[in-house]
Amino acid sequence: MTQSRLLHITPETHHVQIDLVYATDRNFTGKPIYRAQHCLLLEPAEAALRRAVAIARSIGMTLKIFDAYRPPQAQKVLWDFLPDPTFIAELGRGSNHSRGTAIDLTLVDDAGRELDMGTGFDAMVVESEHFHDGLPEHVQRNRTLLLGVMHGAGFTHIKSEWWHYELPGSRELALIDNEDSGPLRLM
């Protein structure tokens, strides 16, 4: 995968819902990290997102995005708040969000309701694991549905977060610094 440019993701251009929680206080830090809601992905991730949108639409679902590109400076804010490598990529390693190749999202049904995934987005608990034992059947079905949509589009998942998907081979790419990200600025 070669480095390319960040592209804007909007409801109008991508047929998704966007609720970038890090631009609000509705995230695990309790404070906004971004000043504005600008959803960005690297070109190959944006192409995979388009495939995921088409797959979701074919089953009557819509994708709702909670986070996409995340500047390294924002990653540092998250790490400083919760230095737990189970849920937050260590600064030396860098997050694939900071490479523009990771996305946090869920599925929304045709009535506009988020599917029940058993925990909220950003719940830094063991129950957030994709295949956590003891989840109700409907929750595991919903998580597996999201997994199928995203894997079908070319993304892979990480064990600890049902909402996190990324392109394979992302670690080969360099981090994209905030100065290169245009309108996405930290608080």
TrEMBL record:
Annotated CDD domains: D-Ala-D-Ala_dipeptidase_Aad (cd14840)
Keywords, alphabetical: Cell wall biogenesis/degradation, Dipeptidase, Hydrolase, Metal-binding, Metalloprotease, Protease, Zinc
Xref: InterPro entries: A_A_dipeptidase (IPR000755), Zn_M74/Hedgehog-like (IPR009045)
Catalytic machinery residues: E161
GO terms classed as biological process: cell wall organization; proteolysis
Residues bound to Zn(2+): H97, D104, H164
Site (Transition state stabilizer): R70
Cofactor-binding details, from the entry: Binds 1 zinc ion per subunit.
GO molecular function: D-Ala-D-Ala dipeptidase activity; metallopeptidase activity; zinc ion binding
EC number(s) per entry: 3.4.13.22
Cofactor dependence: Zn(2+)
Catalyzed reactions: D-alanyl-D-alanine + H2O = 2 D-alanine
Chain's role: Catalyzes hydrolysis of the D-alanyl-D-alanine dipeptide.
UniProt similarity note: Belongs to the peptidase M15D family.
Full protein name: D-alanyl-D-alanine dipeptidase
Species annotation: Caballeronia insecticola
Gene: ddpX
